[in-house]
Amino acid sequence: MPMSSSGEPIRDIFRSNGHGPTEYRRVYVWELPVRSYHWINATALVALCITGYLIGHPVHILYAPEAYQQYWFGWVRFIHFTSAWVYIMNFFARLYWGFVGNKYAKWRTFLPLKKSQRQEIVEVIKADVLQVKMHGPISTGHNSLAAFIYFLTFIVFLLQMITGCALYAPMSTSWLPHLFAWVVPLLGSDFRVRFWHHIFLWFFVCFVIVHIYLAFYHDYIEGRGTISSIVGGWKFERVKDAK
Amino acid sequence: MGQSIWQSMEKKGYSRREFLQFCAAAATVAGLGKSGAAQVVSAFEKREKPAVVWMHFQECTCCSESFLRASHPIVLDVLLDVLSLNYTETLMAASGLQAEKSLNDTIQNNKGKYIVLVEGAVPTHDGGVYCMIGGKTAESILQTVAKDAAAVVAWGSCASNGCVQAAKPNPTGATPIHKLVDKPVINVPGCPPIADVMMGVVTHLLVLGQVPALDSLNRPKEFYGRRVHDTCYRRPNYDAGLFVESWDDENARRGYCLYKMGCKGPVTYNACSVVKWNEGTSYPIQSGHGCIGCSEEGFWDNGPFYQHLPSFPGFGVESTADTIGTIVGVTTLAGVAAHAVVTNVRKQRVIAEVHAEEQKES
Fold first, then answer.
1. What value does the CA radius of gyration of chain B take, rounded to a whole number of Å?
2. How far is B58 from chain A (nearest CA, A)?
3. With 0-12 CB in 10 A as exposed, 13-18 as middle and 19+ as buried, what is A176?
4. pTM of the model
5. Which end of chain A is less congested by CB atoms within 10 angstroms, N or C?
6. pLDDT tens digits, one per residue of A22-42
7. Closest Cα of chain B to A191: distance in Å?
8. Which of B242, B269, B328 sits opposite A67 (nearest CB)?
């Protein structure tokens, strides 16, 4: 049987390109809470990045000469703080769902605890990053590398939440930000806390770029509804791949 | 020794009325308010006046200079006249052996009762040779003095967080005193601290005989509880998004917020915008210059002063976290674009191969 440059039998690719009888099955992967989490998170994150950048670099909008006539910078900060609360609460909801959701949402998928997960990470690096293969074995949910990167993102999110709360604590009467007031003495001053809060912003910017690109990339290469799955929840898997 | 403040004032010829006025002023300065005056009167009548030693280590004496400019002269008397200031290198008449004796006597005669005020950081590198007084290192003097003290106060940023001595590369190993003394230290940071704040802290110690409420960095909450930004009279301009864009522009003349000129008010805890300086005349922001954050740890290393985000270490003076972030972000975009091109080339190849196979089969 002739083999393709990707090392797969041409016939298989041929079939998966729709010319032969390849059977696909529809799988409900992303449950409603997971999809809600994703879009609330995306909205809040974009709002946080934009308002956060503006707080660091206020744009020159000078349409009123006196302070009492406008409040736009106050609103920018208000949106930043409100989005932060939404983001935090949404994250806690997702943590909960990591324990009660379906197998694709479970906390275990985010950590490469099993050997098969670690093998998959190597496969995905070969296929997606080094591009020596067309594609490795396809996971229906997150692939192990993506899942592990989400886990690291959660860590950065926690750091961002901790530094943000530490900066917010002096202006707040709520107990949650005050839980993290110890960060200021730890780093020495608000200067340093703010510095790290800025660094993490750029992590999120890079994450968003890579995340959106890879979502499209997988749809583009695999052609089984990766992009639409985060709207409707369904993905397709080849029956032959499913075990 | 053994006299109360009232007794010593009476001896100096102050009337009862003057004493009461003094108590009211002291109560206000200590943040107790009018209702606290009775408490102060009682304390000053009964409590023995405490002995005070004021140590000078690695410093520029700006804290002492500031202290002498306190706007309540009657409270200033507390330290220079009414109190027993038994030892201070810059102001005392005694020198040499007499000075040393005075310090030793104070420690011996007032064990557990005297107050230590420390101005300056303490060098720790090379056995502490960079600051020695009377043949002894600053560190050993500090340990001796602090051991039996009732309270230890760190005057200014040097003693509280190291200030310029501890700025990179910190050749002398300058260390703030709370890291050397194993008892709670009241930090009164600032380069220098505001005179009236120093008065307030000393008065609080005298009046109540106890340490004032402190925040997580051991600074008195009454003076360091809020940021310069929170009580700044230019704050409405910040919320309105009205900023000075360059020195001496029209916005600067209008008194807009100095945030974009690197004002550190939003990250600096101090009472400047409330108490102000030089008898309440002004403070940096009121004079048209941003706050440089002189009461915050590492303010020398978090520069430049005219940029509100610190420089990114290792990338030169002008690179902030945001410059580096932008470069990394653009690089990521470029990487993703390159990846997309390679992906398309590969996909085209597969489609061509499949197409060829299809042709062969049909």
1. 29
2. 21
3. middle
4. 0.84
5. C
6. 778 889 999 999 999 999 999
7. 6
8. B242
